[in-house]
Amino acid sequence: MKSANVLILPGWHNSGPAHWQSRWELAHGYTRVNQHDWSRPLRGDWQIQLEEAILRCDERVVLVAHSLGVILVAAWAAHSRNVHRVKGALLVAPGDVAREETRAVLPSWWPIERQPLPFTSILVASRNDTRCHFNLAAALAKDWQAQLVDLGSAGHINAESGLEDWPQGKQLLQQLMQLD
Fold first, then answer.
1. Closest alpha carbon to 68 in 47, 49, 96, 45
2. DSSP string across 135-166
3. Cα gap 25→7, rounded to integer Å
4. pLDDT score recorded for residue 180
5. What dotted CATH number matches 3-177?
6. Which pLDDT belongs to residue 44?
């Protein structure tokens, strides 16, 4: 699988240089799906950017999503006619867009799409994530028919979690990249 066909989907406000997504992009040549507005994300706009990025790839892709990027994958999969172009998805630390403080700022993102994802998925969650309770993450994994990986107490699984290159996540990604 070509490195460029691994699509990095950051969450709200993008992923900075110390985030494992940015480190993977730099080290392996993965493709970041850029958004028009990282601060005021609109679900429809973000879905279009993902759709266009997938259509630009010459073979099936693997999605690597974090936080709001995870919610994007579910929203996109519920409406796209191109889900067959996705080999698998690594879904890390979903954002809880139904929380009152989040709904007020991101009204177009809820409710979260909850139907099964039509491609192999692994959802990685933390027991002390301040942006999504573990029970919600586990319920999303069940609804999406994704394999749940319990990372223990790793916060929001971002740069502040101290994961650096996050080798365990890279192993999960390798599993998805090797799918037929």
1. 96
2. HHHHHHHHHHTPEEEE--S-TTSSGGGT-TT-
3. 9
4. 85
5. 3.40.50.1820
6. 97
pLDDT at 167 over 90: yes
The pLDDT, as a whole number, for residue 101 is 84
Task: Tell me which residue of 96, 151, 89 sits closest to 120, measured CA to CA.
Answer: 89
Kindly state the greatest CA–CA separation across the chain.
Answer: 41
Q: Is 129 helix (H, G, I), strand (E, B) or coil?
A: coil
At residue 162, the pLDDT reads 92
The β-bridge partners of 121 are 89
Query: Exposure of 24 by Cβ count < 10 A (0-12 exposed, 13-18 middle, 19+ buried)?
Result: buried
- Cα dihedral across residues 165, 167, 168, 170: positive or negative: positive
What is the identity of the amino acid at 79? H
Backbone angles phi, psi at 26, to 5 degrees: -65, -45
CA 148 to chain centre: 14
Which of the two residues, 46 and 101, has the higher pLDDT score?
A: 46
Q: Could you give the angle at which helices 167-177 and 20-28 cross, rounded to 10 degrees?
A: 60
Complete DSSP assignment for 62-116:
EEEEETHHHHHHHHHHHH-S-GGGEEEEEEES---TTSHHHHHH-GGG-SPP-SP
Mean of pLDDT values over 122-137: 97
